[in-house]
Protein backbone atom coordinates (compact mmCIF):
# COMPACT_ATOMS: atom_id res chain seq x y z
CA UNK A 1 0.00 0.00 0.00
CA UNK A 2 1.40 3.40 -1.02
CA UNK A 3 1.48 6.31 1.43
CA UNK A 4 -0.53 9.33 0.32
CA UNK A 5 1.64 12.32 -0.57
CA UNK A 6 0.48 15.77 0.49
CA UNK A 7 -0.09 18.23 -2.34
CA UNK A 8 3.04 20.21 -3.09
CA UNK A 9 3.49 23.78 -4.20
CA UNK A 10 0.51 25.23 -2.34
CA UNK A 11 0.52 28.30 -0.12
CA UNK A 12 -0.11 27.85 3.61
CA UNK A 13 -3.76 27.80 4.54
CA UNK A 14 -4.67 30.71 6.82
CA UNK A 15 -8.06 30.91 8.49
CA UNK A 16 -9.21 34.06 10.26
CA UNK A 17 -11.23 33.02 13.30
CA UNK A 18 -12.33 35.29 16.14
CA UNK A 19 -11.31 33.94 19.54
CA UNK A 20 -12.23 35.47 22.87
CA UNK A 21 -11.38 34.35 26.37
CA UNK A 22 -11.91 35.69 29.87
CA UNK A 23 -8.68 35.48 31.78
CA UNK A 24 -8.63 35.41 35.57
CA UNK A 25 -5.44 36.68 37.11
CA UNK A 26 -4.50 36.69 40.79
CA UNK A 27 -2.00 39.15 42.23
CA UNK A 28 -1.67 36.70 45.16
CA UNK A 29 1.01 37.98 47.56
CA UNK A 30 1.18 41.32 45.69
CA UNK A 31 -2.54 42.06 46.26
CA UNK A 32 -1.84 44.60 49.06
CA UNK A 33 0.26 46.67 46.64
CA UNK A 34 -2.59 46.96 44.11
CA UNK A 35 -5.21 47.51 46.82
CA UNK A 36 -2.99 50.29 48.18
CA UNK A 37 -2.88 51.99 44.76
CA UNK A 38 -6.70 52.06 44.73
CA UNK A 39 -6.54 53.92 48.08
CA UNK A 40 -3.89 56.44 47.02
CA UNK A 41 -1.12 54.59 48.88
CA UNK A 42 2.21 53.42 47.54
CA UNK A 43 3.41 50.31 49.40
CA UNK A 44 6.86 48.81 49.54
CA UNK A 45 8.28 45.95 51.60
CA UNK A 46 10.97 45.76 54.26
CA UNK A 47 13.00 42.68 55.14
CA UNK A 48 12.28 41.38 58.64
CA UNK A 49 15.85 40.09 58.81
CA UNK A 50 18.36 42.55 57.37
CA UNK A 51 16.07 45.59 57.01
CA UNK A 52 16.49 46.22 53.27
CA UNK A 53 13.57 48.35 52.04
CA UNK A 54 12.20 47.57 48.58
CA UNK A 55 10.27 50.16 46.57
CA UNK A 56 9.07 47.37 44.28
CA UNK A 57 7.53 44.85 46.69
CA UNK A 58 9.15 41.48 47.30
CA UNK A 59 7.71 38.63 49.37
CA UNK A 60 11.20 37.55 50.41
CA UNK A 61 14.42 39.51 50.71
CA UNK A 62 16.75 39.16 47.76
CA UNK A 63 19.79 39.45 50.07
CA UNK A 64 19.05 37.15 53.03
CA UNK A 65 15.87 35.33 51.95
CA UNK A 66 13.79 36.31 54.99
CA UNK A 67 10.14 37.34 54.67
CA UNK A 68 9.25 40.99 54.23
CA UNK A 69 6.59 43.25 55.75
CA UNK A 70 4.58 46.01 54.08
CA UNK A 71 5.22 49.71 54.71
CA UNK A 72 4.04 52.98 53.16
CA UNK A 73 6.48 54.53 50.73
CA UNK A 74 6.79 58.31 50.63
CA UNK A 75 4.68 59.85 47.88
CA UNK A 76 7.51 62.17 46.86
CA UNK A 77 10.93 61.27 45.54
CA UNK A 78 13.55 62.18 42.98
CA UNK A 79 14.29 60.99 39.46
CA UNK A 80 17.28 58.65 39.60
CA UNK A 81 17.31 58.15 35.82
CA UNK A 82 14.84 58.14 32.95
CA UNK A 83 14.23 57.30 29.33
CA UNK A 84 11.87 58.74 26.75
CA UNK A 85 9.91 56.19 24.74
CA UNK A 86 8.79 57.13 21.24
CA UNK A 87 5.65 55.30 20.18
CA UNK A 88 2.61 57.17 18.84
CA UNK A 89 3.20 59.83 21.50
CA UNK A 90 6.51 60.20 23.36
CA UNK A 91 6.37 59.42 27.08
CA UNK A 92 8.88 59.32 29.92
CA UNK A 93 9.66 56.34 32.14
CA UNK A 94 11.47 57.23 35.34
CA UNK A 95 13.20 55.29 38.09
CA UNK A 96 12.22 57.11 41.28
CA UNK A 97 14.38 57.04 44.39
CA UNK A 98 12.85 57.59 47.83
CA UNK A 99 14.64 58.73 50.98
CA UNK A 100 15.27 55.74 53.25
CA UNK A 101 14.44 53.14 50.57
CA UNK A 102 17.15 50.91 49.09
CA UNK A 103 15.70 50.20 45.63
CA UNK A 104 14.08 52.22 42.85
CA UNK A 105 10.49 52.38 41.57
CA UNK A 106 9.71 52.33 37.82
CA UNK A 107 6.80 54.47 36.66
CA UNK A 108 5.62 56.99 34.07
CA UNK A 109 6.34 60.69 34.44
CA UNK A 110 3.47 62.88 33.25
CA UNK A 111 3.52 66.64 32.77
CA UNK A 112 7.15 67.13 31.77
CA UNK A 113 8.05 68.03 28.21
CA UNK A 114 11.09 66.91 26.29
CA UNK A 115 14.24 68.37 27.78
CA UNK A 116 12.53 69.07 31.13
CA UNK A 117 13.33 65.75 32.84
CA UNK A 118 16.53 65.86 34.90
CA UNK A 119 18.34 63.52 37.27
CA UNK A 120 17.48 64.66 40.79
CA UNK A 121 14.19 66.25 39.70
CA UNK A 122 11.59 66.18 42.48
CA UNK A 123 8.48 64.19 41.63
CA UNK A 124 5.24 63.27 43.40
CA UNK A 125 2.99 60.22 43.00
CA UNK A 126 -0.50 60.63 41.56
CA UNK A 127 -3.17 57.95 41.31
CA UNK A 128 -5.92 57.26 38.79
CA UNK A 129 -9.33 58.37 40.04
CA UNK A 130 -10.84 55.11 38.76
CA UNK A 131 -8.26 52.42 39.54
CA UNK A 132 -7.92 49.42 37.23
CA UNK A 133 -5.77 47.41 39.67
CA UNK A 134 -2.75 47.71 37.38
CA UNK A 135 0.75 49.08 37.90
CA UNK A 136 -0.27 52.07 35.76
CA UNK A 137 -2.73 53.18 38.46
CA UNK A 138 0.19 55.24 39.83
CA UNK A 139 2.25 57.76 37.90
CA UNK A 140 4.49 60.66 38.84
CA UNK A 141 4.35 64.38 38.11
CA UNK A 142 6.97 67.08 38.61
CA UNK A 143 6.76 68.51 42.13
CA UNK A 144 6.76 72.22 42.19
Helical run tally: 1
Q: Which strand-content bin applies to the residues?
A: 25-35%
| Gyration radius over CA | 23 Å
Percent helix, as a range, is under 10%
Biggest sheet strand order reads 6-5-4-7-8
Biggest sheet overview: 5 strands, antiparallel
List the domain count as a whole number. 1
Mean pLDDT: 93
Distance between the termini: 84 Å
**Uncertain residue ranges:** none
Structural class: mainly beta
Order of helices and strands: HEEEEEEEE
Overview of this structure, please?
With 144 residues, the protein is mainly beta. The chain has one domain (28-142). Helix content is 6%, strand content 33%. It contains one helix and eight strands, in the order αββββββββ. The strands form two sheets. Strands 6-5-4-7-8 form a five-stranded antiparallel β-sheet, with no helix packed on it. It has a three-stranded antiparallel β-sheet with strand order 2-1-3. A hairpin with a 7-residue loop joins strand 5 and strand 6. The radius of gyration is 23 Å and the shape is extended. The chain starts with 30 loop residues before the first helix and ends with a strand. The model has no long low-confidence stretch (mean pLDDT 93).
Amino acid sequence: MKKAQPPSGIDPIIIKDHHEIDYLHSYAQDSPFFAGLSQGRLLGTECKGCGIRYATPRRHCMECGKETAWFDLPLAGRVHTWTTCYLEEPFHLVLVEFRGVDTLFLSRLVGAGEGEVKVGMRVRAQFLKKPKFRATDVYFVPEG
